[in-house]
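Database export, one record per block. Field names are fixed; values are copied verbatim from the stored entry.
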Amino acid sequence: ITRLVPKLQTKTSTIPRISVDDIRELFSFTKGRREKAGVVIIESVDSMTPQAQNAFLKLLEEPPVNVHFVLTAHALDQLLPTVRSRVAMSRILPIGSKESQVYLDELGVRDATKRAQLLFMAEGLPLELQRLATDERYFTEQVQYVQAAKLLLGGSAYQAVSGVLSNKYARDEALELLRHMVRMLTRSISQQAAQRLDGIIRAEASIRKGGSVKLHLVAAVL
């Protein structure tokens, strides 16, 4: 089993990517006949540049004998349609909160503050948890994105616009910032929905037991 993982391409890059050069190395690694089956796991295939995805297509179209590819991705919309059409897709649900905590234990993260930061940024996503926990540079950069996303979401409209205009975000940086904003909003919506659902279940139980219909319906919709 061989793994191909995204990495920072230059000293100034802030987003890990899989590049064309990485795919060329993969071509060299997989060429030739193999007596036993081999597995290549490509983590976060959605981090491939478009050029790398186009280069990877040839391997997907004509895979080497006895070589199997397992691809993981968080954002399928970042993959070219030609790549998506050549793979069999399975959706894997995020791991739970307890599993995330256990995984941080396995990774040796003991500091309570850092654990909280990691869980806020990547709870449920083991690959992202691992990357954040083991790559200090990546962790520091992602914390900066989270802080910027919080300011944009939590401030006034004027502050948000000012924050965008005062920073020269590159395309990749803007997409990374939006990714964190989406995750924050999704978490917020999920928590709110869970609280509403809990209230509805309590109201249903109370009404079934003979409680005031109007009173508990009002409580459920507040």
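Remark 1: The chain has a mean pLDDT of 85.
Remark 2: The two ends are 53 Å apart (CA to CA).
End of record.
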